[in-house]
Amino acid sequence: MTLRLGLIVEKLGxxxxxxxxxxxxxxxxxxxxxxxxxxxxxxxxxxxQLQQSKAACIIVSQAFKDKALLRGACIVVxxxxxxxxxxxxxxKQHLPPIxxxxxxxxxxxxxxxxxxxxxFIGPLCVLERGSVVGANSVLKSxxxxxxxCRIGARCLVHSGVVIGADGFGFALNAGRxxxxxxxxxxxxxDDVEIGANTCIDRGALQDTVIEDGVKLDNLIQIGHNVHVxxxxxxxxxxxxxxxxxxxAHCTIGGGAVxxxxxxxxxxxxxxxxxxxxxxxxxxxxxxxxxxIDENSAWEKNAASLKQLARLxxxxxxxxxxxxxNNSFN
Length: 329
Known about the structure:
By secondary structure, the protein is an alpha/beta fold. The protein contains five helices and 35 strands.
């Protein structure tokens, strides 16, 4: 398959410097692209790869226009990374259609489940009683959609995802655990993407809710009663404990953890591997992790941290003594 540069610019905009009849046979990184492929430069730290790149054409911002022209064809846009994302969508639209049934023969679908006629249900999927899959949504292989759980329109759910397993709820009874039956469901909005082997638990009483446009990476755990606001995104291995509320347009880096019953305001960004131990009520970038260091230095710092409470009390005592001395002078 090929796409003409002229067609790409016609569909997506941008200023083309080069022949509109040049045909692109693929998309690739600056370093790996060949003379038949389209690439992009979105971050200044990769600009040293620009002149050496063999790409047929490179998407760049206005700041790198002159350097790009020295090597050949380019498309100048305001946001190269976003433009490249749109090119990937255009490319996929032009791929030959896959001639496979909308519902794979191995899928198990309860008679009371509702599947929109335009949805795609992959091999070995299970849709339980009362579950709903919206228009043009795609469930890849081995997706499990629990009883009364709902997926909106244009969602993409990757292999191995489990939606609607019981939340982790138990009460102690004389040293033994009594199960708290999970009576809610999971409600997923439109245009949501869920990565492979991610698990979203059903609510205990109220529903677990994933709003429109949310993007979840692989191996994420969303606990019961969690509410994730629209267009938030989480990287791989994030864990969100039960009854936490994540605002809209939040980002959570890989391996980070949000403890239960906490709230993140709209526009909060959490660094990778952080542990959120308190609610965050204003937007911003937050980090809660101990920086990596040589082990010997880390052990010394860790030992010092254990003494912080005692040192704090000593400082308070010294401050109090100074105040008393000053009062007599």
